[in-house]
Amino acid sequence: MNKIDSAISEFRQMDELASGNSPVHRLEAGIKLAVTVFYIICVVSVDKYRLSMLTMMIFYPLLMFQAAGLSMSGFFYKLRYVLPLVCMVGVFNPLLDTSPMMSFGNVSVSGGMISMLTLMGKGIFCLMASYVLVATTRFDSICAALGRAHVPRVMVTLMLLTYRYVSVMMQEVSVMSEAYALRAPGQKGIHISAWGSFLGQMLLRSMDRAQELYSSMLLRGFDGAFRYASGERAKTRDFVFLTLCLLSFAVMRFVDIPELIGSFFV
Q1: Burial class (CB in 10 A: 0-12, 13-18, 19+), 47
Q2: CA distances (Å), 94 to each of 10, 112, 223, in order?
């Protein structure tokens, strides 16, 4: 399996994950979206020197991973290209901020080291929460929730069509790559001299395929309105989940629980 076929397989695996039947999957999409957005806001707004406060934020994604039956190895594998970039944020902070913030015996920890760890934690926690949302909610349900939240219809439709067309475009690239490999046996990858024509042909094929898809949508009565997602509505359990999450995030954001616990033993 080449890289493109592997990417197509991973793309389909996300749809399969979102079709599960765990308690997290059964929550209403709008509730999960609101919880995720509020969680990200709380995580991002933590001060860069409050590492102890940030550590409490890990409980939400971990609990959601367990309740939804998601594997941490799958998360790290699917985001293997994004996580290193996230961890690079603030990597130079220890060199820029050398003032000591705390000490463990004879070892002092600088403010730059703490801020670096805090920024890394923020990025990883936000990615984990976003992964939980995408892996437990079908994308059309997310778009339907955005529509109910009065997000402009053009943006919602554009997001959905882009998501659906990515797989179609990857299939076109896979077909073209296979055709090139058959005409150039033994060659690894696509030669640089063929990049221009390859990209041009891919653009033309994509435009033709997009026109065919759009014509098919018009024949089925598409008029720009978002009417093809499930009309699920929030239930009592969804509002209970929303209330518990918002209260928990607010407490973890404004109360440094590890520091409070530590004060009882000092």
Answers
A1: exposed
A2: 37, 4, 55
Please state the φ and ψ torsions of residue 74, each to the nearest 5 degrees: -65, -40
pLDDT category of residue 227 using cuts at 50, 70 and 90 = low
DSSP string, the chain: --HHHHHHHHHHHHHHHHT--STTTTS-HHHHHHHHHHHHHHHHTS-TT-HHHHHGGGHHHHHHHHHHT--HHHHHHHTTTTHHHHHTTTTTHHHH---EEEEETTEEEEHHHHHHHHHHHHHHHHHHHHHHHHHHS-HHHHHHHHHHTT--HHHHHHHHHHHHHHHHHHHHHHHHHHHHHHHSTT--S--GGGHHHHHHHHHHHHHHHHHHHHHHHHHTT--S---SS------HHHHHHHHHHHHHHHHHHHS-HHHHHHHT--
Based on its alpha-carbon atoms, the radius of gyration of the chain, rounded to whole angstroms, reads: 23
Q: What is the pTM of this model?
A: 0.83
Buried-state track 150-165, b at ≥16 Cβ within 10 A, e below 16: eeeeeebbeebeeeee
Query: Would you tell me how many other CB atoms lie within 10 Å of the CB of residue 141?
Result: 19
How confident is the model at residue 266, as a pLDDT? 62
Tokens 């941490």 appear where?
A: 72
* pLDDT band at residue 83 under the 50/70/90 scheme: confident
**pLDDT in the model for residue 242:** 93
Which tokens belong to 125?
A: 């926690």
Please state, as a whole number, how many other Cβ atoms lie within 10 Å of the Cβ of residue 42: 20
Which residue carries 């509730």 as its tokens? 31
Whether 164 contacts 177, CB under 8 Å? no
Is the confidence at residue 156, as pLDDT, over 70?
yes
Per-residue pLDDT of 49-60, as tens digits, reads 888 889 999 999
